């Protein structure tokens, strides 16, 4: 028998950590009230409201699989879906075993349930159904645990030293690793960086339309800026060809890097470093935040750098002075010859909340 794989993908995206391919057959297409047709309406509504393509795609994959699962049980129309049916779906996810015999993680079960809550909430608000069967649906809880993929300073330096600097791509890869380590930005944010997003005079990076389509300014260290300058001087001019759209990091073909290609580059560097840990882009984000916390950075500044609007057990801080944020970054980031420590240390509970939030976010990055 063929090996089962994750949900269907588009444009080379990594398979969703799911249960099987999202079916392409339009189940119940002839029925205007079918799950399938309402799914298409839901997708169109999200597009008009400016939801990110990644969010729309992930939700549609889950809804396709749910529609197929429901059809196997004779349920085609949205009006036929009740809370007990959704609880059966959750039980199905809990009992499912992947090709390697392992169950779905709690995070993966959540990834197959949250889109349904959003879908039925929209159906109820748009008056397509009389009530929302998912309104009081209990979700599986993700335990709060310390992350396993956090590097020490020495381990991070080993990974950074992996790229072969005698090769053009090695210089580019080193620059990208330095940016990830220094700023903690997400992989999508890195590949979207433009030449004019780097402000050397102020020592900051402009992240445009990050998660939630929010802009933010993030400090970047001197060392990372030096590697960017070396890449711009020695490598990028040879990569840029044809119409240059200003994308900072380019592939060997002169185009913006794909998400999966970037993840592959970072993953290979981590493996080649021989540090005994597995991870990719999010490992650097997690490591940056953890090490700065250990060096005394206040939770508010870490929150602002990561672009988190809220953390459990912390207040919502919506405005932080970029000058103060830059000072904290300079004082606490480990990639510097002399490490200055702030006197005040982040509260243990809020630090744990930060790590839990980052750990949960890792699942979204991998999805």
What is the CATH class name of the largest domain? Mainly Alpha
Unreliable stretches (pLDDT < 50, length at least 5) are 1-18, 311-321, 338-346
What number is the mean pLDDT? 81
State the separation between the terminal residues, measured CA to CA. Answer: 25 Å
Rg over CA atoms:
22 Å
Q: Which bin fits the share of residues in helices?
A: 40-55%
Structural class: mainly alpha
Q: Provide the CATH topology of the largest domain.
A: hpI Integrase, Chain A
> Which outline best applies?
elongated
Q: H/E series, N to C?
A: HHHHHHHHEEEHHHHHHH
Number of self-contained structural domains = 2
The main pleated sheet reads as: 3 strands, antiparallel
Strand order of the largest sheet: 1-2-3
- Report the β-strand fraction as a percent range: under 5%
- Indicate the CATH architecture of the largest domain: Orthogonal Bundle
CATH superfamily of the largest domain: Intergrase catalytic core
Tally the helices: what do you get? 15
Could you give the count of β-strands?
Answer: 3
């Amino acid at each position: 028998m063929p090996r089962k794989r994750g949900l269907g993908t588009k444009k080379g995206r990594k398979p969703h950590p799911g249960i099987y391919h999202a079916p392409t057959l339009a189940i119940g297409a002839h029925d205007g009230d079918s799950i399938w047709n309402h799914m298409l309406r839901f997708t169109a509504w999200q597009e008009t409201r400016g939801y990110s393509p990644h969010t729309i795609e992930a939700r549609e994959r889950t809804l396709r699989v749910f529609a197929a699962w429901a059809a196997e049980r004779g349920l085609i129309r949205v009006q036929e879906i009740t809370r007990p049916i959704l609880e059966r779906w959750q039980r199905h996810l809990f009992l499912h075993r992947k090709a390697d015999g392992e169950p779905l993680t709690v995070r993966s079960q959540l990834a197959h349930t949250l889109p349904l809550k959003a879908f039925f909430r929209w159906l109820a608000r748009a008056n397509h159904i009389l009530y929302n069967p998912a309104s009081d649906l209990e979700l599986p809880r993700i335990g709060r645990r310390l992350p396993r993929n956090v590097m020490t300073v020495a381990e991070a330096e080993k990974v950074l030293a992996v790229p072969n600097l005698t090769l053009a791509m090695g210089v580019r890869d080193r620059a990208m690793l330095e940016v990830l380590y220094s700023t903690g930005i997400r992989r999508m944010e890195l590949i979207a960086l433009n030449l004019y997003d780097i402000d050397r005079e102020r020592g900051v990076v402009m992240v445009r339309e990050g998660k939630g389509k929010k802009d933010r300014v993030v400090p970047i260290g001197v060392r990372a800026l030096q590697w960017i300058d070396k890449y711009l001087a020695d490598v990028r001019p040879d990569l840029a060809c044809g119409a240059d759209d200003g994308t900072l990091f380019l592939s060997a073909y002169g185009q913006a890097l794909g998400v999966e290609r970037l993840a592959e580059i970072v993953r290979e560097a981590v493996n080649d470093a021989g540090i005994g840990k597995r991870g990719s882009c999010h490992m650097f984000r997690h490591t940056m935040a953890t090490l700065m916390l250990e060096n005394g950075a206040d939770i508010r500044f870490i929150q602002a750098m990561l672009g988190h609007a809220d953390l459990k057990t912390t207040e919502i801080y919506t405005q932080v002075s970029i000058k103060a944020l830059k000072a904290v970054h300079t004082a606490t980031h480990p990639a510097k010859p002399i490490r200055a420590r702030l006197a005040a240390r982040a509260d243990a509970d809020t630090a744990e909340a930060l790590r839990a939030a980052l750990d949960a976010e890792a699942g979204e990055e991998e999805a």
